[in-house]
Amino acid sequence: MEKRPEERPLRADAARNRARLLTAAHEVFSERGADASFEDIARHAKVGIGTLYRHFPSREALLAASCDERLLEIARASQSREGEEGDAAEALASYIEQLVTTAGLYRGLATSIGVVLQSGTPGCHATTQEGERLLARAKRERVIKRDVLLDDVVCIVTAVALAATGDPARIRRLIAMFFDGMRCA
């Protein structure tokens, strides 16, 4: 069976271009926000705009790829804490806090985080799976209401990231307030 184009390994020059685009995207997004122009990113990477679109057909695809390693770290860190003492509420709150921090990585990323998480990159997939696992655990232990969905959590992440703008104390306080609303009575 022939591999689909997205499954084929990249040629060396294409892999270099992709890496340059990701570096440029991170730098430009950090400076100008998630709505920075693709033309600026391509120019910063010293590639043509067509090269950028071949690798990343949408803004969300580029944002997801530029956040992918950080999202993988969130999932790994959460999984590594699984055997530690602590309850499901603490594990879920920690996950939400890390996701809020990532959503605030670039100005404007928070408004796209829900779409970014659905992009299918390894980090997005791992983070989504870990969120589902933590929610299931919290529901099983009757820590949160059974009707809370991961989409609800992503909405909370978006709201807190937009409101807190990088203030760790405010992030924790807002997450605690939202979490109180999700708790079982």
Structural class: mainly alpha
- What is the terminal separation in angstroms? 54 Å
Low-confidence stretches: 1-5
Oligomer: single chain
The radius of gyration computed from the alpha-carbon positions, rounded to a whole number of angstroms, is 18 Å
Beta strand %: under 5%
Share of helix, binned: 55-70%
How does the major sheet shape up? none
What is the N-to-C order of secondary-structure elements (H for helix, E for strand)?
HHHHHHHHH
Query: Globular, elongated, flat, extended or rod-shaped: what is the shape?
Result: elongated
Average predicted local confidence, pLDDT: 89
Total DSSP helices: 9
Protein name: TetR family transcriptional regulator
Pfam families: TetR_C_43, TetR_N
InterPro entries: Homeodomain-like_sf, HTH-type_TetR-like_transc_reg, HTH_TetR, Tet_transcr_reg_TetR-rel_C_sf, TetR_SbtR-like_C
Domain HTH tetR-type: 15-74
